[in-house]
């Protein structure tokens, strides 16, 4: 009945969840291919956490249907709980217990023998670089250490499917990079990951596929490259080494792009849709005797994509400055 | 995939077949595992026991020496009258720790983690209640110990004392569900204390714990007699001092059963709504 390697580890059709008047999920469809990372991207309050809570059996949807590892969320929740690991937005560890005891507790709850649970706890502490802190109460841990402990707690049972709900929110950039490396290692080991994030950069870095949600609805989906290609044009940027050539450059770029280029200092930029403009620009500038220090054709950033999809920017900047 | 990696998931071949439900035995084992948390917490921080011991000791001393003479003529006789009731009052207040611990787990997200595990749905709640029985036993020993240092004597011997302890724990188990309800309702752990204290203080005061009912106006006597705290205090007094009386003991057990029947399902229902 359950194929060992189904194409989709997690599949949801038309999930709806209301809290009183608020519609948190308004008919979400999604699929996480086995062994890949799906990035669920959206601003605060878009419904990301609700989606994770439904798919990890913590909430029952009002309507819709979903399977995890081939098991139905409404009738086979107990089986699903044996397959998944969950790391929430806050580090859900018992602060008065040591790191070691936190992991031991989970191991024992999962039915491991005491010696097995202890061995597993030590193994994970070593893997997550927490061996030295393992004997200290979790309340003495730094933010990054707590997240690592939290992540290792969700891995005690060697889950095949892992939910990471905003795993790096509120962490400083260095710790985020550390966590990204850990997540990549998990994926290399064959874990399927559903990752929610409000950081476009994070989805771009980690996800094989991205679903953008806003107000409980899927507003776009695809690979990071597809999303960028589908919504954003590309940007041609030229900077002459001699600032007096700006006017010439502007004229060339205007002709190639058929738009009014933007001039910012000596940098001339314009949106273009045909990648062939790049060699053309090189030839025309060379003919005009203009030497350039910068000549690039770059894809729209996911930030721009996000803005064009949702009509409002992410809270990214505030979140970053708040964390720093 | 390397076979030695700590993070590698189990492949289907190695994994035991998935079970479809949790057995009662497993659920009980899981509750005990969760209760173990509290024991470890106390071991890490023994002062926590000291923290919640100060108030009961203060109450025993205060009532014995400040009010004892005025109420009973001399503090020695008042101590004998009041101490069993004081133990009852303390038992009720300690059940608030269930709510406080539960609320901490809810607000810190620990409960989400527990509920995402393949364990019995009731194990996290039961584990909390079980864990706090350790604190109950400690607080009974504490108040009784302080009383005995001051001269309280067990008129009904060790058996009576053990019977009283068993009855108190039985009632505490049932009343803990009230603590659970408060723990789910409150926004944060501090509020659990505020709500709990506000409710429990009048209930324990308007009882026969501190004063003989004969001194009260008639209408108040009716209220006090109907108060289950008076009933338990009577039962515990009997068991500790003069000999077990079936009436109050049976009534106490009925109250315990009634409270459990109402508040256990209520808390499970509220719990589902909150999460």
Automatic annotation (TrEMBL), chain A:
Q: Which GO terms describe its cellular component?
A: plasma membrane
Q: Where in the numbering of this chain does the ABC transporter domain appear? A: 10-240
MF terms in GO: ATP binding; ATP hydrolysis activity
What highest taxon heads this organism's lineage?
A: Bacteria
The places in or outside the cell where this protein is found are:
Cell membrane
GO annotation, biological process: daunorubicin transport; doxorubicin transport; response to antibiotic
- Listed transmembrane segments: none
Keyword Nucleotide-binding among UniProt keywords: yes
Q: Which SMART domains match?
A: AAA
Question: Record's InterPro entries?
Answer: AAA+_ATPase, ABC_transporter-like_ATP-bd, ABC_transporter-like_CS, ABC_transporter_ATP-binding, DrrA, DrrA1/2-like_C, P-loop_NTPase
PROSITE patterns linked: ABC_TRANSPORTER_1 (PS00211), ABC_TRANSPORTER_2 (PS50893)
Q: Which Gene3D superfamilies match?
A: P-loop containing nucleotide triphosphate hydrolases
Keywords of the record:
Antibiotic resistance, ATP-binding, Cell membrane, Membrane, Nucleotide-binding, Translocase, Transport
Pfam families cross-referenced by the UniProt entry: ABC_tran, DrrA1-3_C
What is the protein's membrane topology class? Peripheral membrane protein
The similarity annotation says: Belongs to the ABC transporter superfamily. Drug exporter-1 (DrugE1) (TC 3.A.1.105) family.
Q: What is this protein called?
A: ATP-binding cassette domain-containing protein
Instruction: Say which species the protein is native to.
Output: Phytoactinopolyspora alkaliphila
From TrEMBL, chain B:
Q: Where is this region: Disordered?
A: 1-22
Return the InterPro entries for the record: ABC2_TM, ABC2_TM_bact-type, ABC_2_transport, Nod_factor_ABC_transporter
Q: Boundaries of each ABC transmembrane type-2 domain copy?
A: 47-274
TM stretches of this protein: 52-72, 78-98, 137-155, 161-185, 192-211, 253-271
Tell me the GO molecular function terms.
Answer: ABC-type transporter activity
Question: What keywords is this UniProt entry annotated with?
Answer: Antibiotic resistance, Cell membrane, Membrane, Transmembrane, Transmembrane helix, Transport
Instruction: Name the Pfam families on file.
Output: ABC2_membrane (PF01061)
Highest taxon in the source lineage? Bacteria
Polar residues biased stretches: 1-13
Family note: Belongs to the ABC-2 integral membrane protein family.
Question: Which PANTHER family does this UniProt record tie to the protein?
Answer: NODULATION PROTEIN J
What's the protein name? Transport permease protein
Which species is this record about?
A: Phytoactinopolyspora alkaliphila
């Amino acid at each position: 009945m359950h194929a060992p390697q189904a194409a989709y580890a997690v599949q949801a059709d038309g999930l709806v969840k209301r809290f009183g008047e608020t519609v948190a999920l308004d008919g979400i469809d999604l699929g996480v291919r086995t062994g890949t990372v799906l990035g669920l991207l959206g601003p605060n309050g878009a419904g990301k956490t609700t989606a994770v809570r439904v798919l990890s059996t913590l909430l029952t949807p009002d309507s819709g249907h979903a399977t995890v590892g081939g098991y139905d969320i409404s009738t086979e929740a107990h089986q699903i709980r044996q397959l998944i690991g969950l790391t929430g937005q806050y580090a859900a560890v018992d602060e008065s217990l040591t790191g070691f005891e936190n992991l031991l507790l989970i191991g024992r709850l999962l039915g491991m023998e005491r010696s097995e649970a202890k061995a597993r706890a030590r193994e994970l502490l070593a893997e997550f670089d927490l061996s030295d802190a393992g004997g200290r109460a979790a309340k003495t841990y730094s933010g990054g250490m707590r997240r690592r402990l939290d992540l290792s707690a969700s891995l005690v049972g060697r889950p095949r499917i892992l939910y990471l709900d905003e795993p790096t929110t509120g962490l400083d950039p260095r710790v985020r990079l550390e966590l990204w490396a850990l997540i990549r290692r998990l994926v290399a080991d064959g874990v399927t990951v559903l990752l929610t994030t409000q950081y476009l950069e994070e989805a771009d870095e980690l996800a094989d596929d991205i679903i953008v949600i806003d107000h409980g609805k899927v507003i776009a989906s695809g690979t990071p490259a597809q999303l960028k290609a589908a919504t954003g044009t590309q940007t041609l940027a030229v900077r002459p080494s001699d600032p007096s050539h700006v006017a010439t450059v502007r004229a060339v770029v205007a002709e190639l792009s058929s738009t009014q280029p933007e001039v910012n200092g000596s940098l001339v930029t314009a949106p273009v849709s045909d990648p062939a403009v790049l060699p053309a620009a090189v030839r025309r500038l060379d003919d005009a005797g203009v030497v350039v220090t910068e000549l690039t054709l770059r894809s729209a950033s996911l930030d721009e994509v996000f803005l064009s999809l949702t009509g409002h920017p992410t809270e990214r900047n505030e979140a970053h400055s708040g964390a720093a | 995939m390397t076979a030695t990696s700590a993070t590698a998931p189990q492949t289907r071949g190695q994994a035991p077949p998935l079970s479809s439900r949790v057995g009662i035995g497993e659920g009980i084992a899981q509750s005990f595992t969760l209760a173990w948390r509290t024991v470890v917490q106390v071991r890490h921080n023994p002062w926590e026991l000291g923290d919640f011991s100060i108030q009961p000791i203060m109450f025993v001393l205060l009532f014995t020496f400040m009010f004892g003479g005025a109420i009973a003529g001399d503090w020695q006789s008042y101590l004998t009258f009041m101490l069993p009731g004081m133990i009852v009052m303390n038992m009720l207040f300690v059940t608030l720790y269930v709510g406080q611990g539960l609320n901490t787990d809810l607000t810190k997200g620990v409960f989400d983690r527990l509920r995402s595990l393949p364990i019995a749905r009731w194990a996290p709640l039961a584990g909390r209640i079980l864990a706090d029985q350790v604190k109950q036993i400690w607080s009974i020993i504490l108040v009784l110990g302080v009383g005995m240092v001051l001269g309280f004597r067990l008129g009904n011997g060790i058996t009576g004392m053990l019977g009283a302890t068993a009855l108190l724990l039985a009632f505490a188990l049932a009343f803990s569900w009230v603590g659970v309800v408060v723990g789910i309702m409150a926004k944060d752990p501090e509020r659990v204390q505020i709500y709990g204290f506000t409710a429990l203080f009048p209930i324990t005061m308007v009882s026969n714990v501190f004063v003989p009912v004969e001194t009260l106006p008639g209408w108040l006597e009716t209220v006090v007699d109907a108060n289950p705290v008076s009933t338990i205090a009577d039962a515990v007094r009997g068991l500790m001092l003069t000999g077990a009386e079936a009436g109050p003991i049976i009534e106490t057990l009925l109250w315990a059963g009634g409270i459990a029947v109402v508040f256990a399902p209520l808390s499970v229902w509220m719990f589902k709504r909150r999460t």
